[in-house]
Write a structure and sequence with these properties.
single chain; about 80 residues; mainly alpha
């Protein structure tokens, strides 16, 4: 999962308070056609669904923190799936 892309989607979401992350993902896809495949978008929606609170807290602390937290959560998900 591309944490830069996920961070950009969270940034879009922050600019429009009250908006669902799914809408922010759609906006990102409209602004960057082909940047996120259908499968990647589905994986991101599921990932945000599982870890939304932790990701939102990390987003408030900046990009480096957000990316580190997202990477750890992603690794934990992959480990749990095995």
């Amino acid at each position: 999962m591309n944490t830069n892309t996920l961070y950009d989607i969270y940034t879009i979401n922050k600019q429009t308070p009250g908006e669902d992350m799914t809408i922010s993902l759609a906006k990102f896809q409209a602004e960057h056609p082909g940047a996120v495949s259908h499968e990647e978008a589905r994986a991101m929606r599921e990932f945000v669904g599982r870890h939304g609170k932790a990701l939102a807290m990390a987003f408030r602390k900046g990009k480096a923190t957000f990316q580190a937290v997202a990477e750890v959560l992603y690794a934990e998900d992959n480990e749990a799936a095995q």
